[in-house]
Structure formats: C-alpha cells, structure tokens
Amino acid sequence: MKKVNGTNNKYLKINLNDHSWSVYQISDKDREKYLGGKGLALKIYYDHLKEGLSDIDPLGEENILIFAMGTILSTGAPCSARFEVYAKSPLTGLLFGSSCGGPFGEACKTAGWDGVILTGKSPDPVVLKFNHDSVEFVEAGELWGMNTEELDKALSMSAREASAVIGPAGEAGVLMASIKSGHRFAGRGGLGAVMGSKKVKAIVARGFSHKMEPVHPAGFKKATKKLKKYIHRSEFLKSYRLYGTNAGVRFGIKSGYSPVRNFRDRYHPAVEQTSGEAMAERYTTRSSSCRHCSINCGHKGHYKDGKLHQIPEYETNGMFGSNIENYDTDLIIEWNDLMNSLGMDTISVGGTLAWAMEAAEKGIRKSELEFGKFDNISQIINDIAYLRGEGRELAMGSRWLSEKYGGSDFAIQVKGLEVAAYDPRAAWGQGLSYAVANRGGCHLGSYLVGMEILFPYMKPLSLKGKAEWAIFYEDLFAAMNSLQICQFTGYGILAEYPVPKYIPPVLLRPVVAFFPRLSQLLMNWAGLSQLYTGLTGIKMSQKGILRAGERINKLERWMDFRMNPAGMLDELPGRFLNEKETKFQGKNTVVPLDKLLEEYYLLRRYSAIGEVSESDLRRLDVDL
Ligand code: SF4
Q1: 93 C-alpha vs ligand 1 centroid, how far in Å?
Q2: 495 pLDDT above the threshold of 80
Q3: Helices and strands, number each (H, E), in the chain
C-alpha cells in the first residue's frame, strides 16, 4: 500500500479518440484556490476549453467529462465518500456538476488518482478499466444495451473494484440520463447522456493500492471528531437517520411546500401517506447509505415481493407522488427502481410527466398521460429511455416541450432543469435559490428552505436577509461540494449555531434577518477548513473556505455567460410568480422575485442581467 501525503494531485486523462492516456498534474496553486471536487473540475474544464466555450456541443466529442474526487475522500472524514461528475449539460446547455456518493469515488482515489478526465469520443462502445498505472480499453460488446443492474453483475468486479455506469437512457442520449455508482447516482443534468455520447458504458477503478495520510494528523483528527460530534448531536439529522430525506414530507404539509398536481395546489391530505414516518412503518426500513456516512439518510425497505428495495428520496417521492396525484408508495418504489435501472434522473422525468399531464388536460398537446392514471407510467418511462413513441419527445424535458407547444408558465423548470419538490411560494428564499443557481432549478444551490422552514430561523414569506443568506450558503455549499463533504453535514453545523441557543425565540428571526453578516460571523464552519488544512497542509481559514466558494460560483457563472448567454436567465416559472390561489389553507402568496433579485445582484456585484465582471474575478484571484 503506497502512502500518499494529503492528496494524489493528479488526474487520469483519457483520450477516447485514440484510446490513449496520460497524467494530468494539479498545481498547488489550483489545489489551494479551487479545493478539489467541483472546484477543480471547473478549473480543469476552463483550462481545456476556455478558448471555445461558445462552440461546445454537449453531446459532441469536444465536450469533456470529468470525474472529480472529493479532497477528503477516503480519509475517515464524515460523509465524505463523494465525487463530482462535471461537463456541459445537454439538458441546460450550461456547465453542470452532479455529486454522487457511490463506491467509484473511493476506488478511484485509492487507485492513486484524484479524478478522471474523458476527452474525445470512442469509435466503438467501450468499458474503461484502470488501476494506478494502467488503463484497459475493453470492447463493450454485449454490455452495450444492458440496464445498470445487469451491467453491474456482468462486470463481476472484485472487492477492490467499483464502477460508474450508464443505462440504456445514457446510450440513447436522453437529456435526463444519469450515471450510477453502486446504488447511488449522479442524477441531474443529463451527464449520463454525455458519457453515452462518448460511447463509454462503464468505468471501473481498481483501487485500494494507495492510502491517504493527513499532513497534520492531529489537526485532521480533531476536525473529524468535531464534525462527527455536531452530526450526532443534531436532532434534525436524527430524523434523517430514521426516516431519510422523506422526513421533509411533513414539513411540506405544514408549510405548503408540497408539490401537488404539477405544483398547482401545494396541499393534499393524502400527502401524509408518503411521509418518511409512514414509509418507515410500512416497509420496516433500514439504512442504505453512501460509504463512510455518519448521517445515513439513504434507506432500503421490505417490499411486498419479500425483497429489499431502495426507498425513494424525498424528491422522487414528491415528483412521482403528489405531483402527479399518486399517493401509492408501492408504485413510487417500482418506478424509482425502473428509472434507476434505465439510468434516468427521477426529478426531471417526474417534472416532465407532470407538465405533459397538464398540457394534455389543457388541450395543448395530445398525450395518454393523465393526473391520477398510473397504468401507463411504467411503459412511458421505458419509452423515454428507449426514445419510443411519445417518449421520444418527453426525453427532451419540459423546457423543450413548452417551447414547442406552449405552456411555459406551468413548465416547472429553471434554465432547463426541472425544479425539485419544494414549492417556493411557501419559502421565498428558496425561490431565489432556484432562480439564481448556475445549474438551474436545483434545490441545493443555497437551499434556503432549510433556514426558512426546516430550521425556521427566518420568516419564509419575507424579503429581509434572503439575498445575503442565499449568497452565504451558495458559497459555503460550493466549497463543500469541492471538498465533497455531503451538504447534509451543513445541518450539523447549523445545529451548533449559537444564535438560536442564546437569543430568545422572539428576537431570533429579526436578528438573523436584519443582521445577516453578524449572524454569519457567529456560525462555526471552521471544521471544514481544519479538515482541508489537516489533510493537505495548505493553510485555509474559515473565511478562505467561503472565498473559494465565491470564486468557484463566479467563475462558473462567467463561463456560463460565455457558453450560452440566452440560457442564463435567472427566472422562475410563471406559476410561482403569478398564480396565488392554491389549495393550501395557510397564507397564499407568489414569489416577489424581482425584489429578491435586485438585492442579490447588488450584493453579488453582478450586472443588471446577472453577469459577473472580469474585475470581480480578478479580485478573487482568478487568472483569466
Ligand atoms: S447523508 Fe445521505 S446523501 Fe449524504 S453522504 Fe450520507 S447517505 Fe449520502
């Protein structure tokens, strides 16, 4: 076993055109400025393609696909067995990172590589197998065409090996195709289609020949211990451990963020049947999580066929439950399994089906799909993956469909990415988070619904402080996705936040809203910088972590504007801006996006259309 001080600092670069490979060295300067994971993937993309950003066809050979391992992966740090998949997305036409907690990450990192860069396009379908010093290009043969379950079996990997694979949807170029590793997914943005366009069916890493050793073991151990303590003390994270992300269902019922009938209604009494608590009882669930996780939000449960099945995440549950007026969780489990084996993002497929149901109801597009009718859903999911019949159009996503047929007000997407299962009319900050996220309708950009409803430290229907907190979390999460520590550890950090501990409840919300900077100063995320410094030996402060996050967010946005300016509209679907009346019994509102954006742009130093200036990038030490 070779001991590595800190990180490997090299990527495996594979040229698929001629089946050759080389070593791509990461400089100390880039490691410091971009941290790892998402940040380094972005910088590598920039260094390879900065001259031709406007001419990249996402499914053309010029797009590059990067698998970027987390900096702290395979070190014993909590919730850190994660990696980022990064490329220009065929769904949004913008840069896109998708994080995955599957076993490929650890195998790749312990094979001596901090990541893999795929360039070009293989002439024939191929499986890539690599270890620390060799790469095999194996003809995919009959593996091409297999679903992800069949493929993992056929690859018959040893205990030291792990894979990242695509299913039939990725091969067919479905814009919502995902990449699977173990039972976890890089789900969003259609990156499975990018892998398929390169004719790569699977990448198999043979690892566990290298061991990461912190440069400062004592500091690293201390930071690990601290973060684990935060996680284990958090009452909120206990609910994730017990009920998974579906612990969020009951919050949605109370607050009115549940997606019901293509986000029309915000409430239905039967949503309770899909709660994490109801599913835990019905399926006697148990943990089934990403590797080395201290939270364990993933679950499996006993299904009626007597076997253990993956319990769908909150997002899948919402999109294939209340959003299409289905309250039968058995069906959601079956469809989830099906989409996972075909390799498709459940959020985008669900959002697209709901659009098609409403479009059919309004008579603007013919379809067999109907709210409350489920006998044809499995068939249509298959048809999308294989581009058959109506599935051929649905595979293009809700933005494309609404541009062809009309109905953009109820195409619930931002920048082409279908929105996740939180209705932002219940939490205005979440509306801002969706609108400004570089990757589109992503719930994880700044995830303000956390501060507004899950930890109710801010009034959800208020403007005050929202822009400032959105910026704070966008930068913190960009840095976390670069270290690749799961964003959910952020709840552990939030649980230790001294402001709610020492300020009486009546003053808490005003303090957080009116003094956001001061409140943020009292938050302690130093565990992250201490992990980074302890592992790499590179000095990093708590403030430095946020600055790296800002650099990453802004360089990505600057590149997106060069790549596809028309696609960079920070907007929300008309439904969230204009349709006030819903079936929710609480306060009905729309999102005052213009006001939120005005303050956000000002604080972010963006132009009136949300563009980053070159001088701002220079201020952040970006070398253009
Ligand atoms: S909390 Fe959930 S998503 Fe995060 S690392 Fe653990 S299992 Fe994976």
Answers
A1: 28
A2: no
A3: 28, 19
CA distance 137 to 559: 32
Ligand 1 pocket, residue 485 CB under 6 Å: no
End-to-end Cα spacing for the chain = 39
pLDDT in tens, 182-222: 999 999 999 999 999 999 999 999 999 999 999 999 999 99
Please, which residues have CB within 8 angstroms of residue 489's CB and are 6 or more apart in sequence? 78, 79, 227, 230, 231, 294, 295, 480
CA distance linking residue 484 with residue 494, whole number of Å: 18
CA 182–ligand 1 middle distance (angstroms): 14
**C-alpha 544 to ligand 1 mean position (Å):** 25
Pocket probe for ligand 1: among 242, 296, 491, 493, the residue whose CB has the most ligand atoms within 8 Å is: 296
Could you tell me the pTM of the whole model? 0.97
DSSP-based three-state secondary structure for 309: strand
Q: Could you tell me if 341 and 185 are in contact, meaning their C-beta atoms sit under 8 angstroms apart?
A: no
Distances (CA, A) of 212 to 9, 41, 468: 11, 20, 37
Domains by residue range for the chain, with CATH = 2-213 (3.60.9.10), 261-418 (1.10.569.10), 427-619 (1.10.599.10)
User: What share of the chain has pLDDT > 90, as a percent?
Assistant: 93
- Of the ranges 125-134, 368-377, 469-478, 503-512, which one carries the lowest mean pLDDT score? 503-512
Distance between CA atoms of residues 186 and 192, nearest Å: 8
Nearest Cα residue to atom 2 of ligand 1 = 297
